[in-house]
Amino acid sequence: MESLEQIPLLHDHHNHLAFYTAMHKSIDLSKVKDYKKALCLMQKLGKGINIVTGWHFYSYIKEDIEKLPPVLICDTTLHSFIMNSKGKEKLENRFPEIVENIENPEWVENNLPEILKLIPCINKITRNDIKEFFNKLEDDFIYSIDDMLTPSVDFIKTVEEAGFSERCNFWMDIKTYKNTPEKLRNKVIGIKLFLDGAVGTETAAITGYKSGSKGIKVSTKENLKNNLSYIESQNKAAAVHAIGDKAIDDIISVLEDNNFSISLIRLEHATYITKSQAVKCKKMGIKLCMQPNFSIDAKLFDGKVKKECLKRNNSFRMLIDEVGYIPGEDLLFGSDGMPHGAEAALENALFPIYQNQKLKLTEFVKGYCTDAEINKKISFKIINNKITNIKKIII
After folding, report:
1. Same-domain pairing of 347 and 280
2. Are residues 173 and 199 in the same domain?
3. Of 311, 322, 300, which is closest to residue 354 (Cα–Cα)?
4. What is the DSSP letter of 9?
5. 69 and 140 fall within a common domain
6. Out of 2, 175, 205, 345, which residue is the most buried by the measure of CB atoms under 10 Å away?
7. Do 195 and 219 form a contact (C-beta atoms < 8 A)?
8. Of 122, 141, 168, which residue is a domain's last?
9. CA 161/CA 329 separation, integer angstroms
10. What is the pLDDT of residue 57?
11. Nearest 5°: phi and psi at 206?
12. Contact 280/324 with Cβ under 8 angstroms?
């Protein structure tokens, strides 16, 4: 069976512009599956502090990492990090707390925004860097984005000077927002909060790890309540990182117990949301921002997560058919940069591991594609349940 399709370019509702622009200058090991080859590539790095991403967290030997040039290594989840002694020496004067705690999982999850904002501090971002990265995004069929962790108003100014501010919505973590001068806060549409970590590092608060791990909750209900009250006082939208069902329980509980007047509340990821939770979220008007490319996790995490929990990963059919979520209205899609682009998203949306994860192409378009009037589209063929010949075309 073969079909030719054309759809608009994407609006990625969950991305990290500053982080990925900074990492664009660094080594990406995401396609390097061999441990020795990864070490060989890093051995060629310079004498300054080097940032490496895409690390698969092979069973590494500490002595091997210590022999490398100064390095900070980010794993594929962006929730776990390695820094060798030479790297720590380069950063300990400027960022002593991060250096001291970088390999402490609980500290990392409680301070993740500070770590992710560290990367653009190391790899300084220019207007040309922004331009190059938006060109790369468009090569990956992404026209515009929500930047979910804008590090500063200076960064927003750089994006504006590069000419791309109209293609980016800016969100800040609550600490960065509070440190932003009041007269400049109008550039920010919302504030992002974190409730748990990631499945790959067993820090997402899900019920179902084979190891018995409970994950890590990074906010108490009282703290969450206070943060939402502050967001309400600022008349901003709220985006809440909650991958696991136990984290989702907390946000539902706090919202049920308090009558907040917040214009928009989004759950980011909501990967393992249950039907009962979804019903409550829908009733309260909570939008979900999910990642179709994360559907592959149902296969990747087979060794970490129990089957009954994996089958709940990205339950789009339940959300749409049984609960009534509507793509493009209260069900939005993004990539989180893992990976960027249309191909992986389409592949996992249209031909997923489990049928409950399946999206119709019309649903994908409504939830993921830009409504900007531009003369470019994504063209691709579907041949035997595979996305092929994907390309950008001028119309």
Report:
1. yes
2. yes
3. 311
4. P
5. no
6. 345
7. yes
8. 122
9. 31
10. 61
11. -110, 155
12. no
Q: pLDDT tens-digit profile of 334-371?
A: 999 999 999 999 999 999 999 999 999 999 999 999 99
Give the residue from 192, 325, 377, 350 showing the smallest Cα distance to 268.
192
Q: Tokens 């970088």 map to which residue? A: 102
CB atoms within 10 A of CB 184: 13
Residues 361 and 62: their CA atoms lie apart, in Å, by: 46
Provide the domain count of the chain: 2
Residue 184 gets which letter from DSSP? G
How far apart CA 34 and CA 37 sit, in angstroms, is: 5
CA distance 241 to 124: 27
Instruction: Using alpha carbons, list the distances in angstroms from residue 149 to 128, 232, 243, 284, 342.
Output: 20, 19, 17, 25, 22
Q: Write out the two tokens for 207.
A: 């019920």
Cβ atoms of 12 and 340 within 8 Å: the answer is yes
pTM of the entire predicted model: 0.95
Euclidean distance between CA atoms 277 and 246, whole angstroms: 10
Give the number of other CB atoms < 10 A from CB of residue 37.
11
Alpha carbons 79 and 200: distance in angstroms, whole number: 8
Q: What is the CATH number of the domain that holds 90?
A: 3.10.310
CB 379 within 8 A of CB 6: yes
Between the alpha carbon of residue 178 and those of residues 6, 41, 241, 322, the distances in Å are 43, 40, 19, 40
Q: Name the more confident of 223 and 122.
A: 223
* Amino acid letter for position 131: K
Q: Which has the closest alpha carbon to 306: 217, 245, 242, 218?
A: 245
- Residue ranges making up the domain that contains 31: 26-122
CB 181 within 8 A of CB 153: yes
What contacts 24+ positions apart, CB below 8 Å, involve 370-374?
A: 370/8, 370/9, 370/10, 370/11, 370/143, 370/144, 371/8, 371/11, 372/8, 372/11, 372/143, 372/144, 374/8, 374/9, 374/143
AA identity, residue 365: V
169 Cβ neighbours under 8 A, 6+ residues apart: 145, 146, 147, 189
Q: Locate tokens 């079909």: which residue? A: 3
Radius of gyration of the chain (CA): 20
Which pLDDT belongs to residue 58?
63
